Amino acid sequence: METVDFSGIIVLYNLVIGILLMLASEKIAVYAGHLNTGRHEQIARFTRVSILAFGSCVSALSAFIYVAFHILKIGV
User: Fold this and answer.
1) Would you say residue 1 lies in a domain?
2) Radius of gyration, CA atoms only, the chain
3) Which of 5, 13, 43, 49 keeps 20 to 30 A from 24, CA to CA?
4) Which residue segment(s) compose the domain that 44 sits in?
5) Helix (H, G, I), strand (E, B) or coil at 70
6) Which residues contact 22 (CB under 8 A, 6 or more apart)?
7) Does residue 43 form part of some domain?
């Protein structure tokens, strides 16, 4: 019987969540812009860029961690 690697599953979930945030950043920005109608364009632009950057950082970090630990596991 083989043990389950929960840390790898968590890292892969973070990778998927980061990619989904990157893809949904435009829609989230539109919704955030509608909440404050006075500065709709500024809030939408800031939200889009910040969520895109956050999602890309999360997915890049998760991918690096997953690949690094996978390479280390192969060496063991």
Assistant:
1) no
2) 17
3) 5
4) 6-75
5) helix
6) 51, 52, 55, 56, 59
7) yes
